[in-house]
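Incident log, structure service

09:12 report received: a user says their structure output differs between two submissions of the same chain.
09:20 pulled the input from the user's history:
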Amino acid sequence: MDPPLPNLTPRLFSQPLKQLQTQPLIKPHLIPQTPLPIDYSLTEKRCALPPILHQISNSSSTSIHPSS
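09:34 re-ran on a clean worker, output below:
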């Protein structure tokens, strides 16, 4: 897979993907072709994050900027 940015090395491109897989926030799906493409999908754990992050964001903005 070619990196989306010309100055981005394949290692720097793949490293965040590997980290997301170990979390596990994404999972790879190998497609039987040559060259071997890899498609990624979100895991159930990742799909549960937006509501939690939204609550944290709302909570922190209220703490930083309390209403008068």
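09:41 both user submissions now match this output. Likely a transient worker issue. Closing.
09:42 reviewer note: Helices lie at 10-22, 44-47, 49-64. Residues 58 and 64 are 10 Å apart (CA to CA).
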